[in-house]
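Tokens for chain A. Residues wanted.
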């Protein structure tokens, strides 16, 4: 994926990425040629017409109508080319084809949730079929985020209380990096996900496999992917406490008291994270996870209980 792109741009892996690149290179090279020409002429004039004699008074210079016409007409033509070309590409990338496959994207500090038309959800991995237009309807549960897939030349802000949308069609199977590209708090730089682009057949099979009812522990394990940016399960200290081997033990809290790490405490800490903050940590966990269903909460409780 993307490794053989140029120093400027990663490999173009969506249907319109090549058009975006062509416009980029046109602007880049015309700007480069104009820059070199203007600076070159300027340096030449500085040397050629340098003042060498204090008493010398030059002849008055009269303007050249042809030269003035040229530097008005040429830049006007160039900007009109960039405008019409850019507007065409803009229209193409901002209007999804009517037969697009819809996926809902929810961003929150600091995870991605993807919900597919069949009711399946995934975290940190966006599965898409190759060769079919994909339309993302995106919203934020908390603050500003921004959705960015460099390989597809797709980037769009994600805003609370409003939907924004992008679309793309992937040209080749593979894994492509998704970034959050709007500073959104402590773990902004870790707010990553992957696009997993697979064939239509593999995508259909993946949907079927996801639709099966999972046992609570496995459901909890999958849901935990969105917690893993802040909570490890191997004792490592991240933004939040590690959650390994805690079930049934007494835990110290920030206010000096202790609490039994049981089902009720896990549930309360997800739904109302500021209620009982672990000792040595700040109450920075977002409240957005309170929208989890009872089944999902049960799954997470079962999973954390199962950790040794
Ligand atoms: Cu979300 Cu940065």
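Reply:
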């Amino acid at each position: 994926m993307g490794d053989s792109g140029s120093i400027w741009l990663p490999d173009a892996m969506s249907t319109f990425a090549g058009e975006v690149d062509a416009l980029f290179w046109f602007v880049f090279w015309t700007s480069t040629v104009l820059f070199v020409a203007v600076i070159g002429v300027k340096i030449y004039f500085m040397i050629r017409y340098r003042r060498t004699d204090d008493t010398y008074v030059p002849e008055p210079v009269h303007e050249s109508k042809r030269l003035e016409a040229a530097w008005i007409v040429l830049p006007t033509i160039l900007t009109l080319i960039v405008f019409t070309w850019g507007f065409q590409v803009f229209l193409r990338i901002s209007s999804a084809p009517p037969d697009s496959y819809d996926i809902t994207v929810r961003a929150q500090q600091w995870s991605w949730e993807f919900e597919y038309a069949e009711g399946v959800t995934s975290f940190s991995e966006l599965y898409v079929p190759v060769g079919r237009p994909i339309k993302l309807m995106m919203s934020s549960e908390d603050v500003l985020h921004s959705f960015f897939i460099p390989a597809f030349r797709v980037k769009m802000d994600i805003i609370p209380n409003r939907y924004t949308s992008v679309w793309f069609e992937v040209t080749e199977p593979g894994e492509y990096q998704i970034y959050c590209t709007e500073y959104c708090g402590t773990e902004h730089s870790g707010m990553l996900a992957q696009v997993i682009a697979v064939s239509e057949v593999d995508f259909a099979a993946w949907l079927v496999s996801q639709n099966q009812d999972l046992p609570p522990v496995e459901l909890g394990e999958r849901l935990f992917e969105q917690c893993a940016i802040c909570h490890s399960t191997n004792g490592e200290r991240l933004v939040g406490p590690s959650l390994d081997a805690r079930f049934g033990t007494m835990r110290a809290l920030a206010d000096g008291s202790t609490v039994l790490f049981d089902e009720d405490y896990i549930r309360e800490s997800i739904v109302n994270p500021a209620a009982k903050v672990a000792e040595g940590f700040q109450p920075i966990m977002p409240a957005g996870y309170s929208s989890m269903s009872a089944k999902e909460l049960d799954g997470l409780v079962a999973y954390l209980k199962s950790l040794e």
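Residues 69 and 75 are 10 Å apart (CA to CA). The first strand starts at residue 101 and ends at 108.
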